[in-house]
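pinned: reference chain
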Amino acid sequence: MTRTARDLLETTTRDLAPDPRANPLVPLIARGGADRDVLAALALEQGLVIPADRRAFLHLADRAAAAAEPDSAAFFAALAEGEALAEERLEPFAAACGVDAARADAYDPLPGCQAYPACVAWLALNAAPADAVLAVSANFSAWGGYCATIAQALRTHYGFTDEACAFFDFFAAPAPDLDRAATEAVRAALDAGSLDEDRARRHGRLLQSYEAMFWAALRPPARPVRRE
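pinned: its structure tokens
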């Protein structure tokens, strides 16, 4: 039986799904255990990740177009547009966390958080666009689940408004048009023989590892247990 593009996307997403224990921060937020400074750091780091990823996706779209891969180009153009929309929704979350312009200017980014967009930028410069489609699509599944959990927790435990949660709602919502664009890009690459599945999976594993680093870097250190 011939494997379809949708089969490949679903299999790769399942194979690259992160260990639930790889993200120490989202469960902490889910139970209301993260303080506002941690949430502020999340907002500040995302304020750097989002525009960096947008530029990387635009570059991938340009490279795909130049390589006569219009379906991959359309996928990355859609991702870049989504990042622009997400950036607009990030500001109310940052404001709810107490982040203003002065705090943002004084903030020192965490290397463990910025490793992820550095990897995306590397893909933009070096990866075959079709390989990057598969790697990025597999990674987004876990990210969407994290955002859904955070959005609920912000309302339940922190009293954030819908506007302040809109950034996470945006990524948590189903994206059927983007799913179709990814499927078309993978199908076209399979038909053209331009997709290296092993290489794409290596890219995807790196992305998942760097995403785990992102969350671990934000996790506050455990407080020592006091013994009487």
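why pinned: Confidence is low (pLDDT under 50) at residues 224-228. The radius of gyration is 18 Å.
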